């Protein structure tokens, strides 16, 4: 399904759209750093007036999505019904999880799945190894597409002009000394990923972190997700990773793709 | 944080609250059975008029939470930001996951964590074994509290009158021939769980399924979550489960509780 501009009779500036957007912004203002917030903190973080923030917090409390002791506000687990509606609406995950678990068993490294959201990747599934040094990224967390193996794999499913538009939508940060920060240079790697059907990213996101990804493709031939294996340079080299893990990774992505029914 | 009734100047019937509630209802109408819906389907599932459903879908589309090909609507991964806001706002999970992984390693059965939401438990973390027969419950999924070990453990953290109120809020369904369906009988098990600090539920949720849970308690002494181990009667008996797994389960819950910092 390709995104399409909404019809002209509803604009981002509409009062109705605005108030709904602000409600969702209030939800998103809660985080690990701000698990419980006062009214003033919510107002500051969202740019709302105190009166506006109060109205939205009380609305969320009335609906059971927020609880409060009168001073501090916190989200309730009812919030998960919203994200969970999305996850459960993607039939691929029931299919993907057991196949990904077999891959973890085989390669002894963590395996994840992500989808593209603008210029970011969003994690939708993760199967971790029992190793102590492990990737702590959970479901719903985001990373930029340009410097991650799943990101480049997902970008490879888009036309070049769309890839460049996304790469130019925000400055490409040099997260390590290896990170490619020129959109044209990243595009070349995306094109390589498209040609070969996989990609490996060597410490461009984080020093010491290696990652290799392959696409999950639906019956219409559209890339809908990516699967990756992540490793550590102190345990494996890019060459070793490619030799021992590329074939099982691609086979896993192929199996998930072939089992998708109309996704 | 104990839930408190919202202030009197905002009622569930308010226009603003209503419109926000309807927006969230539209999000929740998408599921594994209805991953892509037409305008008419959304209207039918939510009880909205076509015009009302259209206005909300276009709002969600404008905000990037819904995409459409013009006819079918689907949620986008941006929705996961909402659930992620909740999960990342609970500091316990970073602490809990490695401890739960050690428990899986030790007992070779799946381990989960859940919190109470009304009369339901909501899964917030799951560490599965690599066995083929495994519990397919993911994060955000719900089960009733009355017939689950985590549910009874969480209810044990509430006063008896509150437990009875929740147990009487909906009929207790006989999910198997073993399920207790009398609120007073369930309360007796909840009281037992409170006295002994753990509970075991034998095939009351599902034939063949055993489950044993212990509470996670914060510094204020409040039960904030439960941890469980689930097993299958064809691999273990309740007595074996108790002899071999109860001590490690309670130790895991104790470790998570002791590492909580102000949660």
Automatic annotation (TrEMBL), chains A, B:
UniProt cross-references to InterPro entries, sorted A to Z: GAF-like_dom_sf, HTH_MetabolicPath_Reg, PcaR_PcaU, Tscrpt_reg_IclR_C, Tscrpt_reg_IclR_N, WH-like_DNA-bd_sf, WH_DNA-bd_sf
Pfam families according to UniProt: HTH_IclR, IclR_C
Keyword Transcription applies: yes
Residue ranges of every copy of the IclR-ED domain listed in the record: 78-262
This protein's UniProt keywords: DNA-binding, Transcription, Transcription regulation
A molecular function (GO) term: DNA binding
Keyword Magnesium part of the UniProt annotation: no
Highest taxon of source: Bacteria
Signal peptide: none
GO biological process: 3,4-dihydroxybenzoate metabolic process; negative regulation of DNA-templated transcription; positive regulation of DNA-templated transcription
Boundaries of every HTH iclR-type domain copy: 17-77
Protein name: Helix-turn-helix domain-containing protein
Organism: Ramlibacter montanisoli
């Amino acid at each position: 399904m390709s995104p399409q501009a909404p019809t002209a009779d509803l604009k981002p500036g509409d009062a109705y759209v605005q108030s709904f957007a602000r409600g969702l912004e209030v939800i998103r203002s809660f985080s690990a750093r701000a698990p419980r917030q006062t009214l003033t903190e919510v107002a500051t973080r969202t740019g709302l007036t105190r009166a506006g923030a109060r109205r939205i917090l009380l609305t969320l409390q009335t609906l059971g999505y927020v609880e409060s002791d009168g001073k501090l506000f916190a989200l309730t687990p009812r919030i998960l019904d919203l994200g969970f509606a999305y996850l459960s609406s993607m039939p691929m995950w029931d299919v993907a999880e057991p196949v990904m678990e077999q891959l973890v068993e085989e390669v002894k490294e963590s395996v994840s799945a992500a989808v593209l959201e603008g210029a970011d990747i969003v994690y939708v599934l993760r199967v971790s190894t029992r190793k102590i040094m492990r990737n702590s990224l959970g479901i719903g967390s985001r990373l930029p597409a340009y410097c991650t193996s799943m990101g480049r794999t997902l970008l490879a499913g888009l036309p070049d002009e769309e890839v460049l538009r996304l790469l130019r939508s925000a400055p490409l940060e040099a997260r390590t000394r290896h990170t490619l920060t020129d959109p044209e240079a990243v595009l070349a790697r995306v094109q390589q990923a498209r040609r070969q059907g996989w990609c490996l990213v060597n410490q461009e996101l984080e020093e010491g972190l290696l990652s290799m990804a392959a696409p999950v493709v639906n019956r219409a031939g559209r890339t809908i997700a990516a699967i990756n294996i992540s490793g550590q340079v102190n345990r494996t080299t890019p060459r070793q990773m490619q030799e021992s893990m590329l074939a099982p990774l691609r086979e896993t992505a192929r199996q998930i793709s072939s089992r998708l029914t109309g996704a």
